[in-house]
Amino acid sequence: MIRRLYDWTIRMADHPHALWVLALVAFAESSFFPIPPDLLMIPMIIARPSRAFTIAAVAMAASVAGGMAGYAIGAFAFDAIGQPILESMGKGHAMEEFNQRFNDAGFWAVLGAGVTPFPYKVITIMSGWTGMPLATFVVTSIVARGLRFYIIAILLWKFGSPVRDFIEKRLGLVFTVFFAILLAGFLVVRYL
After folding, report:
1. CB-CB neighbours of 5 under 10 Å
2. What is d(CA 192, CA 190) in angstroms, rounded to the nearest whole number?
3. Cα–Cα distance between 112 and 19 in angstroms, integer?
4. GO CC terms for this protein (predicted)?
């Protein structure tokens, strides 16, 4: 099933309404869909580099809106919808312990999930379930998803197809390292 969804996502990059499809995929990925919008963005930007920043803006706006839907699932329908989604991803255990830790590091949790390969949908649902302040969630989601999608857009706009393999294979690692350095810097400033 995942392979069929992946193939469908890639085919949609050539569709005349690709921006609408991208918005749908970015929205859905933020709360339940397993395929990231990056896979649709990359061929769209390579095909039309002049639209790179429009494509990134659509992905960011739809992803944040989808994140708010995930937040609502966590806040209002966690037992019926959120818990089964998290359990299907193997994240359904240790919820109570996670609740306190998550809200203590809410900004960093949303930022980290927004830019790294960690499933953003897990963080959106958890943000609502744990009662993270909505303003913190939205602002951090805008920053995180904006970083992720605009960096991809800038790299593809500037370097084109040669950077595609790098993005598809290693960008998650780069974002993870960047986030770890950022978090370490914050901890050094805070505790030293």
Report:
1. 14
2. 6
3. 26
4. plasma membrane
> Could you tell me which of 62, 85, 81, 65 has the C-alpha nearest to residue 73?
81
Which residues constitute the domain of residue 139? 2-191
How confident is the model over 82-111, as pLDDT tens digits?
A: 777 767 767 666 565 666 677 777 677 777
**Terminal CA-to-CA distance of the chain, rounded, Å?**
49
Number of domains in the chain: 1
Separation CA 44–CA 2 (nearest Å): 21
Q: In the chain, where does DSSP find H-type helix?
A: 2-11, 18-29, 38-47, 52-76, 83-88, 95-104, 106-115, 120-130, 134-159, 164-191
Q: Are 91 and 161 in contact (CB under 8 A)?
A: no
Gyration radius of the chain over CA positions: 17
Say whether pTM exceeds 0.85. no
Q: Which amino acid is at 173?
A: L
Instruction: Report which secondary-structure segment, H or E, holds 192.
Output: none
